[in-house]
TrEMBL record:
<dbReference type="InterPro" id="IPR003593">
    <property type="entry name" value="AAA+_ATPase"/>
</dbReference>
<feature type="domain" description="ABC transporter">
    <location>
        <begin position="2"/>
        <end position="243"/>
    </location>
</feature>
<dbReference type="GO" id="GO:0016887">
    <property type="term" value="F:ATP hydrolysis activity"/>
</dbReference>
<keyword id="KW-0547">Nucleotide-binding</keyword>
<dbReference type="GO" id="GO:0005886">
    <property type="term" value="C:plasma membrane"/>
</dbReference>
<dbReference type="InterPro" id="IPR027417">
    <property type="entry name" value="P-loop_NTPase"/>
</dbReference>
<dbReference type="InterPro" id="IPR051120">
    <property type="entry name" value="ABC_AA/LPS_Transport"/>
</dbReference>
<keyword id="KW-0067">ATP-binding</keyword>
<dbReference type="Pfam" id="PF00005">
    <property type="entry name" value="ABC_tran"/>
</dbReference>
<dbReference type="GO" id="GO:0005524">
    <property type="term" value="F:ATP binding"/>
</dbReference>
<dbReference type="InterPro" id="IPR003439">
    <property type="entry name" value="ABC_transporter-like_ATP-bd"/>
</dbReference>
<keyword id="KW-0813">Transport</keyword>
<protein>
    <submittedName>
        <fullName>ATP-binding cassette domain-containing protein</fullName>
    </submittedName>
</protein>
Amino acid sequence: MLDVRNLDKSFGAIHVTRDVSFRLDKGERRVILGPNGAGKTTLFNLLAGEIAPDAGRILLDGRDITAAPVAERARLGLARSYQKNTLFDGLTVAENLGLAAAVASGATRSILRDALAAPAVRETVSEVAARLHLTPHLGAQVSAVSYGVRRQLEVGLALATRPRVILLDEPTSGIGPEMAHGFHHMLSSLPRDLTLLIVEHDMDLAFDVADRITVLNYGEVVFDGAPDDARNSALLRDIYLGSWENA
Ligand SMILES: Nc1ncnc2c1ncn2[C@@H]1O[C@H](COP(=O)(O)OP(=O)(O)OP(=O)(O)O)[C@@H](O)[C@H]1O
């Protein structure tokens, strides 16, 4: 489904992504772990098309998208959520979801009110809201909802574009470990044919949702395998656990 081959990226003298390769099968949930500065967000920026690699290739269903612009990747079914806030505070939860759905369906020239009233958009809004436990908040203005609901909505915006692969950049950052487990449970219950690539700081949280785990350190893949193998890896325990605990 998503085939990442030998990606390399430097910013000036800083070599941030070093020969990174992995494959995501359809429906796979893979977590990218790694300490601060390991290159996780840079990898996402490369995959989403926000920056170009110096070397390497990215294939989506066999099609080379290495040079494809962000919008084309989105059209091909690749969606992304951000660590930074991308919500419209002055609109309701439903309007935010509706906008994402409307833009993804090509309704850019309609006025907002018409686009949001389209039956397909309304259907997407209620389906995504139900999946992400946002239904009770649909009528609320985003500025009035809790931080946890905002994080759910960030994922909702990606889901409303009806993607096949979603890149989630630390979806649980800042919401506390207990809520984070619930959040991952919600992610696990998304349709099984949806492919998820999730950046996560916390190894315990990664075990909630991951079929496979990739660990980056100094821009390099130092582990790629099943969660149980990650849990039992002396390499990860000895070298990286300390830095995660302090993160
Ligand atoms: N545009 C840029 N110009 C220069 N250096 C950059 C740029 N983007 C990232 N870096 C550097 O690349 C390294 C990796 O950063 P990146 O944000 O990808 O790591 P990360 O694993 O996502 O970290 P965190 O967990 O703190 O979010 C850091 O040293 C960062 O300072």
